[in-house]
Structure formats: C-alpha cells, structure tokens
Amino acid sequence: MDAQTLTYIFVGVSFAIYIGIAIWSRAGSTKEFYVAGGGVSPLANGMATAADWMSAASFISMAGIISFMGYDGSVFLMGWTGGFVLLALLLAPYLRKFGKFTVPDFIGDRYYSKTARFVAVFCALIVSFTYIAGQMRGVGVVFSRFLEVEIETGVIIGMVIVLFYAVLGGMKGITYTQVAQYCVLIFAFLVPAIFISFQATGNPIPMFGMGDTLASQPDTYMLDKLDGLSKELGFNEYTEGSKSMIDVLAITLALMVGTAGLPHVIVRFFTVKRVKDARKSAGYALLFIGILYITAPAVASFGKLNLIETVNQKDYAEMPEWFTTWEDLGLLAWTDKNGDGKIQYLGKAKEGGDALTGIPSFKDSERGESGQRLVTNPSENKNELYVDNDIMVMANPEIADLPNWVFALVAAGCLAAALSTAAGLLLVISSSVSHDLIKKMVYPKISDKGELIAARLSATGAVVIAGYFGINPPGFVAAVVALAFGLAAASFFPAIILGIFYKRMNKEGAVAGMIVGISLMLFYMLKFKFDFFGGGTQEDWWFGISPEGFGTVAMIFNFIVSIAISKFTPAPPADVQEMVENVRIPSGAKEASGH
C-alpha cells in the first residue's frame, strides 16, 4: 500500500479514537471541565502530562534543532527534563493541596488581590498564546506534508479537531485523549529511531547505536564520522559546543523554571485525588518524557548523517521525491551558486540566518530556473542549502528509505504531539477567561452552567486566534516555544515559589515582580527576536545572553523587586499567612504529631 493511503488510514484511525474518547468523557460540570473532576489516577495523569508536555517542539522540532546545533542543543534536554524535578519537589504537592482550578486562581487567593489575579491572567494568556503559536505551526506543517493539503487548510482541520474534544470534554476529555495521544506519539518516535539505528549500526537501541560503530565502516564510530563530516563541510564539530557558558546556563535555567511555571502543566496536578498523587504524577511524567528525550539525540545524529550523505555534492536533478516535496512547501531550499548543478552543503550563513542555529534564511518570492527556492545568505558563503529544523523528524523515514507504514506512523505521532499540547493550552486560556476573569472578577454570581458556556466560548475564540498563528507563524516551533518558557520563568515562577515558601510575601511585591518580569522579557524578546525597538544583533545581547535564555535574567529581577517591595509594604493578613503555613504541612502531619 502506498504511503499516502497508509497516512490517511493511520491519521484517520487516531482521530476517530480521540473524538470517541472526547464523546465518552464529555464534561458535565465546571469541575470536570477545569480539573477532570479531581479524580484522575497518578499513572493516567502522568501519561497525560507527558503528552501535554511533549508538544510539537519536543516531537517535531527538538531533534531537528539538535541536528543543527549539535552539542549546544543539549540545553533543551537538560532544561525541559530538569523542570519536572522542580515541579515534583517544589510545586506540585503544594499547589494540589491548595486545591484551586488555575494558576491565576492560586495567585489571586494567595495574594488576596484582584489586581494580582488580573496580572496573572494576562501573563497566562501571553505565555499560552506564545506557546500555542508553535503548536499550530507544527499542525500546519504536518498536515501540509502528510495529507498534501495547503498549510492554511491543515491548520483549519487541526483547529476543528482540537475544538471538538477540548470544548466538548474540557480537562476530563483532554486528559483521557492525551493518554491515547501519548501512546501514539511515543510509538511513532521510537519505531523509526529503532529502524534507523539498526540500519546504520546494527544496534536496535538508538541511544546505544548513536555511540556505536557504523555497519558500513566497522572501524568508525558514528559520532566520529559525523564530527569529521561537519569539520570537512565547514561547520563546528557536532559533539562540541559553540555557545558561551553563560548563555548555556541561562537557557537551561530558563527552560527549567519555565517548565515549573507553565500554567498548562501546573493545572494537571489539580486533577488528581490526593496531594501525594501529585508528586507521583510528576514522577511518572518524567519517566514517560525521558523515554523520548533520551532517544532524541540519536534521532538527531542519525538524521543529520543521513541528510549530509544523501544531498551533499549530489546532483539536484537526481534528488529523491522527498527533497522536492519539502522544497515546494518552503521548508527546504537550494540555489546553485556556482552553476555546477550539485548541492553544496558547506558552512554556516554569516548573516540573514536564524539567530539560534545560524542556518540561512530564504526569500519566499525568489525561485531559481528549476523552480527551486533560493537561499539568501551572502554570496561569499558557499552554502547552497537551507533546511528547516522542523522537517528533520518528519523527513527522517523518507531520507532513510524506511517502509511506508513507518512514514504514516510518524504522521500520526506528529499530529498527536501538536494537538495534545494545543488542547491543554486552549483549556488554560478558556479557564483564565471564564473562571478567573468572569467568575472571580466580572460576574461572581454566574451559574455553574453559565460559567461552563463561557469556558466553551472562550475556548472557541482561543482556537481562532491560535489558527491565525498557525497560518502566520512567527518562527520555527522550538524557538517560539523556548520564548514561552522564558515568559513563564519571568512571570509565574517567582510568584508561585514565594507564595508557597515565603509567608511575608505580599500582594504589592507579587504584582510588581510579575509586571517587571513579564515586561522585561517581552521587551527583550521583541527587540532581539522580532526586531522591535530598533532591533539588535547578537553582539548587542545583554550579558551575552540570547532571547531564549533571558527569562533567567528577567526572573532574577522579578525575585529582587518582589522581595524588596514586600519588605517596605504591609505584611499579608494573618489568615493568609496561616493558609500558607497549612499548605506547606504534609497531610496528616498535625494528627501524627498530636497537634
């Protein structure tokens, strides 16, 4: 059976499963809509959290970005897994004991202030829409390639699917849908990795195969071969980093604390029955996430090696069908600078490329004589090829010439990853509007049924906005998502940590800290990533830290401002301080100690 037919079958079956689960588990109350009724088991919640977490950035883009960054890409592995350790130890159990529906709900009650709640809602919307922009771009790319439709059409199809099970089922429907999506995406990620590892090294375990010798060259280790090719082509050695130590540390920390401050991840720990289940959920989630994350470097390495050996110094006219397919989508580009008809993949672009990876950009309006999309890096640079990070995982089965059913499986996995996180983010957006704004601030007397309607209408509006981002993407998936983590680190993390562990923390300090943190991160992101406020180059970065890592700096300013202002303003009311004290005491501790 051909790849296209298999893709329709695999994707169609997976969508039928998701929709069936949504109908079976539809929400009938606001508690079911916001936190799945609070009765999800730790194992199911761990799988759902993993699916919610492993978005298009993890499935589609992370291995791709490691392919081009090499060692420097390890910041994503360290940051995104380390964040769950912080969640398990410092946040999940305490937030579950607090027993609220949303992060703004926690901040509004902890800091006894409507202003604090409003600022938290604003931050949640900024973080969530920044994050969802990457997901919808992933949805559009996947649909356009695998179902052979326009990117705009693909985004609309994805919007309809997400809207159906997010609006109908709420958190209850999303949770059990995400359990199914985790099974699909992890299987889809591991199967081609096992195939490619065995094909290249004879070792079926990808993470071991990456460090093994090549089947075609028994005396050569795979990574040594990749290092050698990279040096010959004018790139940095694959296994050596080029980023400064301070930027590596800043990005890693921003991703870690950003993870611990992401609203759509935190809300998952409100869905379990008991406080100890929240900690168990975080442990299960880290285990399930780790399966993909320890495999991603192998997928990246094998994919880069296969790409170089397939295209470099080869005739453009003899390229396989997958090359021209991706080229037509604008995610692969070549221009014949020396007129020899061969593809030269040599060195980095000196300007006009992506700040995170250094790969060249391209102009959509320019085409060569053969219809190829033109690379616009400077003429003195010999590189003739542009490869979008986001295609590496999706194109891997084609590059390695794997069976058609593997290609179809990857399509289903890519969509599961993008749609699962998009659904979780939509729920955060809808609950922030319906529960935190309407119920808690604008119209407290609204009925449970009215609030449920408002939540579903908010989700519908959020889907439309998210669709716009998918059709007009701001960048490749992982870069956009990394910025969302910086925004979460700069805004939520200090307010939540201080709210749990510092009784003297008051509303004035929390509000000022969140405003300073989010404003600083937004300014830096817009200036250096999107060329607002006069733009700037890498040489202009503050402290030598990239926009992806600046969340760490903004977070530090948030902590300083929050604590300083709280010192010079009135202490929180006694009942709030007592509430904080009770949240930190493990369940049953008072009875056990006789108090």
TrEMBL record:
InterPro entries: Na/Glc_symporter_sf (IPR038377), Na/solute_symporter (IPR001734), Na/solute_symporter_VC_2705 (IPR019899), Sodium:Solute_Symporter (IPR050277). Its main location: membrane. The chain crosses the membrane at residues 6-24, 77-95, 116-133, 153-170, 182-200, 248-270, 282-302, 405-429, 450-471, 477-502, 509-526, 541-561. It is found in: Membrane. Gene3D superfamilies: Sodium/glucose cotransporter. It comes from the Bacteria. It is a multi-pass membrane protein. Keywords: Membrane, Transmembrane, Transmembrane helix, Transport. Pfam families: SSF. Belongs to the sodium:solute symporter (SSF) (TC 2.A.21) family. This is Cation acetate symporter. It comes from Psychroflexus longus.
